[in-house]
Specification:
Blueprint: H1 2-30, E1 32-36, E2 42-48, E3 51-56, E4 60-65, E5 71-76, E6 89-94, E7 101-110, E8 113-123, E9 127-139, E10 149-151, E11 157-160, E12 179-183, E13 200-203, E14 208-213, E15 219-223, E16 231-235, E17 260-261, E18 269-275, E19 278-283, E20 288-293, E21 300-303, E22 309-315, E23 318-323, E24 339-342
Parallel strand pairs: 5-9
Antiparallel strand pairs: 1-24, 2-3, 3-4, 4-5, 6-7, 7-8, 8-9, 10-11, 11-12, 12-13, 14-15, 15-16, 16-17, 18-19, 19-20, 20-21, 22-23, 23-24
């Protein structure tokens, strides 16, 4: 009887200890909510005054206000959008100087050569249409096109470009490939750029696909490494970030080492967003939304239940991210791709 009583007490204690953990798991699941589904290879999230904009690589922009049905509009450009490999309609940001206008980054082909361009577009009746060229002829390839564009706290346009699968281009300062570029909204070169007369802001990048600023105005980028050694970098004007001369923890005089690098693991980081002292990182090969301190410490997985993650945006204290399972590299289900909202504790 004593043994039976002891066993019953143990079972009750185990049962009581499991209930809070199960409840916590349920609460965590409820903190992830699908906002939109059935997106077609989405790439970029933009938000302004309760309106969402999501680019789709085939050449569409999906937009909607809270509570409204989404509207998918084609983007018409003077040079046709080329969805090939990792290319297509990529980065998107609203033009802060004029309503109903935006700036996009897209891949195209000219005389058999793949390139990328940055153009101004305007929303019209049933479509978006090109209105002006800011920059074109950026080296492109089926892989390593970069593609993230963001307006910085200084009102300038920042653009990430890949090395177009030619490693040496990242170190050639005269090339537009393997760089972070900085320009005025009208497409001219800012007078205070590191190299006079050049769009170059930083160089030695392999394939950066994320840009964000913290509340102090520090710029961070995410970058794909060669199979591993993916990077999170704190970007300083005019600095050389080493590719392909150094990777991972390697050092070289005059070159910047990463704030954080993944070692032998692979994240394939894409979109990046700073919030409350931390960086939220969308990872593709890593198939997770991750969080890391702005000092490059304490990386953790927020969720790994949704497959490949392409972009992340913090909006009024909530975390929004898009999956990227319909790009041929993921395991898509009937709801993919999706925009998901995560509500932190």
């Amino acid at each position: 009887m004593k043994y039976a009583g002891y066993l019953l007490l143990v079972m009750l204690l185990v049962s009581c200890s499991e209930e809070p953990s199960q409840e916590k798991a349920e609460l965590k699941r409820e903190r992830f909510q699908t906002v939109e589904s059935n997106l077609e290879t989405p790439w970029n999230i933009e938000h302004d005054e309760n309106v969402f904009y999501i680019t789709e690589r085939p050449g569409n922009i999906v937009c909607w206000s809270n509570g409204d049905d989404p509207e998918r509009l084609a983007v018409e450009t003077e040079k046709e959008i080329l969805q090939n490999g990792e290319g297509g309609l990529l980065g998107f940001t609203l033009n802060p100087e004029r309503e109903e206008q935006a700036i996009i980054y897209h891949t195209y082909q000219e005389e058999g050569v793949i390139k990328n361009r940055v153009v101004l577009i305007e929303k019209g009746e049933g479509k978006w249409q090109e209105k002006g060229i800011l920059l074109e002829g950026i080296p492109g390839a089926p892989y390593h096109n970069g593609g993230r564009i963001e307006i910085g706290p200084d009102g300038k346009l920042y653009i990430t470009t890949g090395d177009a699968s030619e490693e040496n281009l990242g170190q050639k300062r005269e090339s537009l490939a393997g760089k972070i570029l900085r320009m005025n909204i009208d497409g001219t070169v800012p007078e205070d750029n590191p190299v006079q007369g050049s769009f170059l802001y930083s160089y030695g990048h392999r394939n950066s696909q994320g840009l964000t600023w913290n509340s102090e105005g520090d710029l961070f980028s995410s970058e794909h490494g060669p199979n591993n050694h993916d990077e999170i970098n704190r970007i300083e004007a005019g600095k050389n970030y080493g590719w392909p001369t150094i990777v991972g923890e390697e050092k070289n005089e005059g070159m910047m080492s990463p704030l954080y690098q993944t070692g032998d693991r692979t994240w394939a980081p894409s979109g990046l967003s700073a919030f409350d002292g931390e960086l939220y990182v969308a990872t593709l090969r890593g198939e997770a939304l991750r969080r890391i301190s702005q000092q490059g410490e304490d990386p953790e997985i927020i969720t790994d239940r949704f497959g490949r993650i392409r972009d992340v945006e913090v909006i009024e204290g909530e975390i929004y991210f898009i999956t990227n399972n319909t790009d041929g590299r993921g395991n898509a289900d009937e709801k993919d791709d999706r925009l998901i909202r995560f509500s932190p504790e």
